[in-house]
Design goal:
Elements (H helix, E strand, L loop, with lengths): L16 H7 L4 H9 L7 H15 L12 H4 L7 E6 L4 E5 L5 E2 L4 H13 L1 H4 L29 H10 L6 H15 L6 E2 L1 H9 L2 H12 L9 H12 L1 E3 L1 H12 L14 H14 L5 H7 L4 E3 L4 E6 L3 E6 L10 H13 L32 H18 L2 H9 L14 H8 L2 H9 L14 H8 L2 H12 L1
Antiparallel strand pairs: 1-2, 1-8, 3-5, 4-5, 6-7, 7-8
Helix pairs in contact: 3-15, 5-7, 5-13, 7-11, 8-11, 8-12, 9-11, 16-17, 16-18, 18-19, 18-20, 19-21, 20-21
Length: 475
């Protein structure tokens, strides 16, 4: 599904049984799950609506600047912006510049690391590269106490990954092996290669050469490593090109334990993906990784091209591309899209574990009322209303505003006909009552016992609220 509107045929298109079988041969699983109501995101149109709204809101954010240290990246149109999503069962949607190619840059480090794990296993790989956050910039000239790169998600660690991939092949075959893997992850569409970015990066790579020589001095590389060939290979991997649609499918392949949802190709083992997602969670956004893990709580990897790959395990992959970067080298809009998604949906790793999902009870905190994309529309709507009523009873105006932004109707009623206005009036939360009335909520809703918010305010002795509600009812 794309961002534009398709022109519908004037007459219905009728297919024979043989034609239908032919055109759906690669989508039968998705069609069967849709017919049974068992899709990964049952209310996919609601997710699409939210992504369209978020794209519209975030596109106005023009903070940050393109990466200037690689000349070719500095020339990219900074205002381009794409969001693409693919679920683990193949539901897809894209909006914005989703068919424009961009270089993977540091996002390539995820697949390079997975390939080393598949070939050598974690014990061998981690004799040459650590697995702890560095707390430093992505190209910082620093190593752990053993003289190894801190992790595979920064430059030094990715150079080490390139030293481990298919050491017995020549340079062309090694690159083809990596490019073919990206193609498989992305559903079979061929990836590109930006030679001008590769040449530009190689000519401005003094820091990466310094990292390579420093690792060689420390004896970090496997014996017989050709340092210059390894660095060339690293620059080539960073210069692989995809678009947001391909990157979203690749992210969904990781969310699906290494199996591409479009082709059912088992590209990586579940064990490999588990290790990769663990390090993406702790190290995927350079020296912003800790804050991202705290706020967003999902595995992700960013690149200085403005790409951000987000993985929601067992649910979906999301790709965001916007070239303007913050001080840490992460896409400004990419981070903001992630924030807004986690505000609306309980996809943070610990939302469900700690009871911060929809319908959480007293003491649930700021996460109460988030919608669960795994639920059908009716169930999700009901739990959103429960979260709204709870927030109103607590006077949590920030949460009410957030729920309103997530399209929870402020005048909705629960099973007993109680509204947020009933609860706020009963508990004496003046600011909440004022907000709800200013938002156009009906001041005279009647619950199953015939009671109104005015009755609740009078019964609880909140005379100032009773006057406010009485005045609103007369308007």
């Amino acid at each position: 599904m794309g961002s534009g509107s398709a022109q519908l045929p004037a007459q219905p298109l009728l297919l024979t049984a043989e034609e239908f079988s032919a055109v759906t041969q690669f989508n039968r699983g998705l069609i069967e799950r849709a017919a049974r109501g068992e899709l990964a995101v049952p209310d996919f149109p609601a997710l699409v609506d939210d992504l369209q709204r978020i794209h519209q809101e975030v596109r106005a954010d023009r903070r940050g600047a393109v990466a200037a240290y690689i000349p070719q990246l500095a020339r990219v149109d900074a205002d381009q912006f794409a969001i693409s999503v693919c679920t683990v069962d193949g539901q897809r949607f894209s909006i914005g510049d989703a068919d424009v190619n961009f270089c993977l840059q540091s996002v390539s480090k995820t697949v390079s690391y997975c390939l080393t794990l598949e070939e050598h296993g974690p014990d061998t790989v981690h004799r040459h590269v650590g697995r702890e956050p560095s707390g430093q910039g992505f190209n910082e000239l620093t190593f752990n106490k053993a003289g190894l790169p801190h992790n595979p998600m920064i430059n030094a660690g990715a150079i080490m990954s390139c030293a481990l991939i298919r050491r017995g092949l020549d340079a062309a075959d090694r690159f083809d092996y990596v490019a073919e893997t990206w193609k498989r992850l992305a559903g079979g569409r061929s990836v590109g290669f930006n030679n001008s970015v590769y040449l530009s990066e190689r000519s401005t790579a003094d820091r990466n050469f310094a990292l390579g020589y420093s690792m060689r001095e420390r004896g970090a590389f496997p014996p017989g490593t050709d340092l210059l060939a390894t660095l060339e290979f690293y620059f080539q991997c960073c210069s692989i090109e995809v678009d947001a649609q391909q990157l979203a499918v690749a992210a969904a392949s990781l969310a699906n334990a290494g199996v591409c949802p479009l082709t059912e190709d088992p590209v990586f083992s579940a064990r490999t993906v588990r290790h990769c997602l663990s390090l993406m969670s702790s190290c995927g956004l350079y020296d912003f990784s800790g804050e991202f893990a705290f706020t967003i709580g999902l595995p992700a990897k960013s690149g200085v091209s403005g790409a951000l790959m987000l993985v929601v395990p067992q649910l979906m992959g999301i790709a965001i591309w916007s070239p303007r970067l913050d001080a840490q080298g992460n896409s400004v809009r990419g981070i903001e899209v992630c924030r807004r998604l986690v505000d609306c949906y309980n996809i943070h790793t610990y939302d469900l574990l700690t009871g911060l999902g929809p319908g959480a009870g007293a003491g649930a905190g700021a996460g109460a009322g988030k919608r669960d994309p795994r639920l059908k529309r009716q169930q999700s709507a009901i739990e959103g209303i429960v979260g709204l009523c709870f927030a109103a009873s607590q006077g949590d105006l920030n949460e009410i505003r957030r729920l309103a932004a997530c399209n929870v109707p402020l005048g909705a009623t629960d099973y007993d006909g109680r509204t947020a206005l009933h609860l706020a009036a009963a508990e004496g939360h003046r600011e909440t009552v004022e907000f709800l009335l200013s938002a156009g909520v009906d001041p005279k809703p009647v619950d199953r016992w015939g009671g109104t918010p005015l009755d609740d305010a009078n019964r609880a002795g909140h005379r100032h609220l009773a006057r406010l509600l009485a005045d609103a009812a007369r308007l």
